[in-house]
Design goal:
Elements (H helix, E strand, L loop, with lengths): L4 E2 L7 E3 L6 E2 L2 H6 L9 E3 L16 H4 L6 H4 L2 H8 L8 H11 L11 H7 L4 H16 L9 H24 L3 H6 L5 E6 L3 E6 L8 E4 L8 E6 L4 E5 L1 H4 L5 E4 L3 E2 L4 E4 L2 E7 L5 H12 L5 H31 L4 H14 L5 H18 L2 E3 L4 H6 L3 E5 H5 L19 H10 L8 H10 L5 H4 E10 L4 E8 L4 E5 L4 H10 L6 E3 H5 L8 H13 L2 E3 L3 H13 L4 E5 L5 H6 L2 E4 L5 H6 L2 E3 L5 H8 L3 H21 L1 E2 L4 E2 L2 H20 L1
Helix pairs in contact: 6-8, 7-8, 7-12, 7-13, 12-13, 17-18, 27-28
């Protein structure tokens, strides 16, 4: 027997690590083999998938569609027929109605929220609470003393609340609906065999587990199924919707075919084993829908500021009440006016508006660089990203190489990728000649060189020595990880060619190394492996989502790039989801930023070109306005007068000292 091979049924015991032997055999075959009886062997018992007792009526859905065991995709076809109580002639109408009651329709349910309620939810946060309290004080409590309510302050506060809520509402719904985009990828109709072998065309949403469907060239697989027969023995499926890979995958009798994949060659009959949210595609949609309302990094910072303001204002209001009414016996209206000033002055009510306008300017700058921002807060979060997880297909493999790496002659141990990178660093980008252009095009990231290094000195090409010299300092701080549905060997080779490294794993193998009694140490080892790895292969949408989630749980702000439906869950979960050029609608909807040109250099531009100067300018202008008001204020209705430049100077010096201490 040539090469390594395995024979027998999965339930049999296997022999592993046979010394000087390339054949893996069963235990019985080892005992009867005279050739290897004298050799040291290691016997490993690989148990078969434990059977499920009962049928679809008695088995709980969670057990039937357990994502770890995946019983219906691994068991024999006979067991599939037994559990689903089906046959090669299909189901009857009565059976179909019973299954619809338990499994539901073959759709991805999505509940749209009331837009009015969604709009008012943007006024439900700590900063808004204090503003709303100030508005109530201005209109309801500021009465008496022969004076009308404080209408100017009330109107001003309400307008700011409406402006902030409007900006948040527009930003939320401008990105579109990722789940609806995912639904567009499902098959609308399919051919199904029912009622003693009668074929008919029905809406795909009417399918139930146990149905027998026909898949032909060009058809979209309507739900997860197992192949039961095929005239040619095999079919080819385009699984790009789930794995991101454009090369068709061959499937034979007994193999699982997944919802939303497309038949590229051959035809078959298959038995439906999962519909709706129980399919791999449905789980991806459920993950996307589940993370859409997660609070972003910037929102958490604003919430902390709001909570701090609430606590501070509450303390000072209590102190002010005792001082005014107990100590100085102020009149009711006079004290209420002072409390209103504290409520308004103690809260940065204009901060959300100023921040939104500033980030909008940054979004406009990115749009000029062919990057569309669908979630405006992603601009600020992108600047704090420490790890970038990137899909391979359609993202990392689109750069066109000009220099054939196989023909590079090496005179040192430097790898070809590093040779091209160093050559690109030594090119003159401003006045590039033909050779410089060739090298820069082969490097593929010429626009980002200035963001990657700081050039200390540069010596142009010398025809005598035939050398160009550059002294530089690297300034990159983001680690890039490849996450692909392709095979491990392809992922490693791609990583080596792109200079990303080849320390890559199959993610499912990592998590399956855990046993049922895993300890925190085991979880820490898995997290360490995920953090140190250069990439992961053979991943499904839920794997990409879990990888991003693990990195976030370790304290990293994670960006994710991708172009396919399979990337949508991770794009939605990441702090900054980036849909690359030619991405599908689902990826665009789930992403916070959409690129319109190939390449990832714009991400580096966004990281290093956050609107820092605009934020500084906005802060300085705000402080100057506040200082002028504090110095020259003369509000007779509160008996407040300006503090003068002396006290203002003291406050400025105090603020500068506190800032220096915090940044030390």
């Amino acid at each position: 027997m040539d090469g390594k091979s395995r024979v027998g049924h999965p339930s049999r015991e296997w022999l592993d690590d046979i010394t000087d032997c390339d054949t893996v055999m069963s235990v019985e075959e080892v005992k009867s083999s005279k050739e290897i009886q004298h050799k040291k062997v290691t016997i490993i018992n690989i148990p078969e998938v434990p059977p499920l007792n009962g049928n679809w009526k008695t088995i709980d859905l969670d057990a039937l569609y357990d994502t770890e065991k995946r019983y219906l995709t691994k068991c024999d076809l006979d067991d599939v027929y037994r559990i689903l109580e089906s046959s090669s002639n299909g189901l009857t109408d009565n059976q179909i109605n019973e299954r619809l009651a338990k499994f539901g329709s073959n759709t991805i349910e999505h509940k749209d929220r009331n837009p009015i309620i969604q709009f008012f939810l943007f006024m439900w946060n700590p900063l808004s609470w204090v503003m709303e309290a100030a508005a109530i004080v201005a209109i309801a409590l500021s009465n008496g003393g022969g004076e009308p309510p404080d209408w100017p302050d009330f109107i001003g506060i309400v307008l700011l609340l409406l402006i902030n809520a409007t900006i948040g509402y527009i930003e939320k719904y401008r990105a579109g609906n990722a789940v609806k985009a995912l639904m567009a990828s499902l098959a609308p109709e399919c051919r199904v065999k029912r009622n003693n072998g009668i074929w008919s065309t029905i809406q795909a949403r009417e399918l139930v587990p146990g149905d027998i469907v026909a898949i032909k060239l060009g058809n979209i697989v309507p739900a997860d199924a197992r192949i039961v027969s095929s005239p040619g023995g095999t079919i080819s499926l385009d699984q790009a919707a789930l794995t991101g890979e454009s090369l068709p995958a061959s499937k034979t009798i007994g193999d699982t075919i997944l919802s939303s994949t497309i038949c590229k060659q051959g035809e078959c009959e298959a038995i439906i084993i999962a519909t709706g949210i129980n399919t791999e595609f449905g789980r991806a949609a459920k993950i996307v829908d589940g993370v859409r309302d997660e609070v972003g990094h910037l929102q958490m910072i604003l919430a902390k500021i709001g909570n701090f303001c609430i606590v501070g204002i509450a303390i000072f209001i209590i102190a002010e009440i005792f001082v005014m009414y107990v100590g100085f016996r102020y009149s009711y209206r006079q004290g209420i006016n002072n409390i209103l000033v504290l409520l308004i002055g103690g809260l940065p009510i204009a901060m959300p508006t100023v921040l939104s306008v500033t980030l909008a300017i940054g979004a406009k700058e990115l749009s000029a660089r062919k990057a569309i921002v669908t979630r405006i807060t992603a601009i600020e979060e992108l600047a704090a990203v420490t790890i970038l997880c990137s899909d391979k297909t359609g993202t990392l493999t689109q750069n066109k190489l000009v220099i054939d790496k196989d023909t590079i002659v090496k005179y040192t141990d430097v790898e070809p990728n590093d040779i091209i990178r160093y050559a690109a660093y030594a090119c003159n980008q401003e006045n590039s000649d033909a050779i410089d252009t060739c090298v820069l095009d082969s490097f593929g990231k010429a626009d980002s060189i200035d963001e990657m290094i700081i050039v200390k000195s540069f010596c142009p090409f010398d025809p005598t020595t035939k050398r160009t010299e550059v002294i530089y300092q690297e300034k990159s701080s983001i680690k890039v990880k490849m996450i692909t549905g392709d095979q491990l060997e392809i992922a490693k080779e791609t990583g080596r060619r792109l200079g990303m490294g080849d320390v890559m794993y199959v993610y499912e193998d990592i998590i399956n190394s855990k046993d049922g009694q895993q300890s925190s140490i085991d979880e820490d080892k898995i997290n360490e492996t995920v953090l140190e790895a250069d990439g992961f292969a053979s991943v499904f949408p839920n794997h990409k989502f879990e990888i991003v989630e693990r990195l976030q749980d370790m304290g990293h702000l994670v960006a994710m790039t991708g172009d396919g439906v399979n990337d949508a869950p991770a794009l939605a979960k990441a702090n900054v989801g980036v849909a690359v050029s030619d991405a599908c609608d689902a990826a665009r909807s789930a992403a916070a930023i959409v690129l319109t040109e190939p390449g990832l250099s714009i991400i580096i531009d966004a990281v290093h070109e956050r609107p820092t100067l605009l934020l500084i300018a906005a802060f300085v202008i705000t402080q100057l306005c506040t200082t002028l008001i504090a110095v020259y204020a003369n509000w007779t209705f509160t008996e407040i007068v300006g503090c003068g430049w002396a006290w203002a100077g003291i406050v400025w010096i105090y603020n500068l000292i506190c800032t220096a201490v915090e940044n030390a």
